[in-house]
Amino acid sequence: MTMACRPSMLAAAALLLPVAIGHAQVPATAPDVESARTCDAQVESVLLYQGRAAVTRKATVALTSGVWRLRFPGLPASVQPETVEARSSVGRILSVDFLAQSTVESPTTAEAQAIDAEIKRIERQLAETEDSLSGLRADQRRVESIGIRATADATATAGTSQLDITRLEALLKWTTDQQTRISTALRGAEQRADELRAQKSAAEVRRQQLGSMSSSVQSAEVVVAITESASADVRLSYLVERAGWEPTYSVRADPAAGTVRVEFDARVRQASGEDWHGVQLALSTAQPSRAAAPPPVTPWRVDVLQPMRPTPPGAVARSAKMAPAEVAEDAAPSDSAGRIGTAGDAVALSSDARIGGNGPAVTYQIPLPFDAASDSQASRRARIAAFDTKARFVHCAQPVAGDGAFLRATLVNGSSFNLLPGKCSAFVDSDFVGSAPFIGAAPNEEVSVFFGIDPSVTVRREEVERIDRQSGLFGGGIDTVSSYRISIMNGSGRTIDMELIDRRPVSGSDRIEVRVEDAKPRLSMADDYLAVSAPLGLLRWDLAVPPTRAGEDGMLVTWRTIVSRPKELDITPLPK
Asked: Cα–Cα distance between 26 and 29 in angstroms, integer?
């Protein structure tokens, strides 16, 4: 990939420069071009994708008029050579070359060279497989979010003319099909990645038996033409592997105030081989290493006793177009005490990320300079946004299935951020209560989050009585009557809303009748319950539970179920 830069070629190129840069005079010869100047370029900015990172290094060099060769040494091993590009604040970039030079002499036998080529091939295949895994996991999160959202929307419109059962069934079937497809692809990709890692380890062992494997120093050379002496800011950008981010949330509930604080963070992992110190970080939802266009559909031919022709290798082209982040020219300095900005910077550095992008992908620009050493064992957080919002708190209890009343908050995403599907850590006040998936929400969209069991609320269920009695004309039938009671103790000191769920038997025969009588308080009349849950045999009460004083029994919920059938008909056992 390296291009030799001959003086005659560079001189000829320099003669053409006045046409491109306003007829300024450029020397016909370039005495400095033969000796490359090494640039001390620091990582300035990182645009982090969910499976790759676009890194930009900046070097400020004082150059006299002429054609200069600038060398950027120490590129990480994970760099993708075909993505290296450069730009300069003055002059014109003539060429950008990627160089890889061996640092130690290694055996040059045909066998050693073959193993070296095999290892490089396996590494390329492994990188592509890991990229595919990253994309599949992102697709899986999106499909899960769509399925959960479809169910929530159906619940919200249940019992109204807006509920389209046919469309809902089609959407749920699509979701199931997609989940099955993605799960199958994930298993195949994970198995393929494991196989490639094993192949790489075996190849490295064989290579070590032939002699020490040569390491290489990777660098880039940038040829730039300068018409007048100037200080030039030269930036080198490239994509690296083994870096990425995923959304994560801390959701903090304050039930007494009726508010929830949402902290939207990015969990950053990077093992690219180079450290990031005080970089301007941007996070993107794009996937630059996945094809921008669909693959071609190959013909399907049927012939007599002939197998189908396989698709030729390389028929599907891959694109890795990167877009380095726009960053501020001057990053906040860091002093020996760990300060990264002055008091005047505090407001700017602690603000929410800026949102960029006007297509299907979104970019979050992090205001605070970011540090991340290259370490495969560690991950770091970057704050994207934090906001407070009003929430409706409901205690959800279903004592027939398990003890405890779970606190649920329904809130509106009042920010301008699209909250992506991810992992959520839930807190009540300052107490951590557990982790759960977060389905995500668009701006102004509702989302529900559970905050674990509230220890101040207890719910106890018991079957009070069960009897069989004769029924029907001349006693030809049997009724099984079961009486139930639920007691609710509210020690929170305030009235709480509760969604209480239980069940009744569901008849599987037209000879068996089931009914519920004497429910106190009365069952819910909500449209979503009557349309969706009630036909399934679920019982629901929407309650306002006052605080329980010492010595009181709390709120009581009672009802009974009656199962009627002919005397000679045996039925399956009834649960308590």
From this structure: 9
